[in-house]
Structure formats: structure tokens, C-alpha cells
Amino acid sequence: xxxxxxxxxxxxxxxxxxxxxxxxxxxxxxxxxxxxxxxxxxxxxxxxxxxxxxxxxxxxxxxxxxxxxxxxxxxxxxxxxxxxxxxxxxxxxxxxxxxxxxxxxxxxxxxxxxxxxxxxxxxxxxxxxxxxxxxxxxxxxxx
Length: 143
Ligand SMILES: [Zn+2]
Fold this sequence. Notes:
Bound molecules: zinc ion
Oligomer: single chain
Radius of gyration: 16 Å
Strand order of the largest sheet: 1-4-5
CATH superfamily: Peptide deformylase
């Protein structure tokens, strides 16, 4: 499905959420329990589909990525202070310049790097990421 858009969100579900792009970082994120998504199929038709539970959460997470939103954007100011050291470590690992860079900017760059890797080498992801990747592939095939 291309250009997915959430057209309806129902229920409220709060869960500690992680992200492939931000190892060891977890943030409490409120999501809709079920969602209706509208998008375009590979052959150009409009598709509409409902998702619920974990699948709905994953789709909301991935659509956030398309819109440049990360789980850390949902962190409270207090949580952000705690996350800051972990994000600094991530920045170090990605060998980015620490000067004049907020952790948000860094994380978004890390995310961009990851997205590229994900597209090129989906099959070679680490074991704990493989489940997530398989799920995504299944979602993408099913739409
Ligand atoms: Zn993610």
C-alpha cells in the first residue's frame, strides 16, 4: 500500500513501544485500538482496510515514520531527560557530529539511515528485528 493515511481511529491503547531505529529505547505511546487506513495499491487502485490490536499499533508506528515522527516525539519532558543519554550513545554509534545537534535531529538522521538499510537489506536484519520485518512484509503483501 502506498501513501497510507489513517482515516479513522477508535479506542485508546497505551503501551511501552520500541523502534528498530532506536535500539534500547522505549516510550509509552498512546495509539488507537483499531484504525481504518486508506491508500493506493501497487496497480493504482484505492484500498481501504481496517486493522486492530498489535497490527494497528505497528501500522500507526510506520505511518508516523512516513510523517517524520518517532516514538521519542511522544516522550514527556521528564522521559526525554532519561532518554537523552541513550540517544547520545546512538549518536556516537552513528558517528555523527555532536555539535549543534539536538537528540531529535540525531534520531531522525539515524532513522533515515535505518530506512535505507531496511529497503536494501530487509532479509539481513538481526534476529529480533526479523519478526518485525516479516510482519511488515506480510502487511505490505496483503494490501
Ligand atoms: Zn520505528
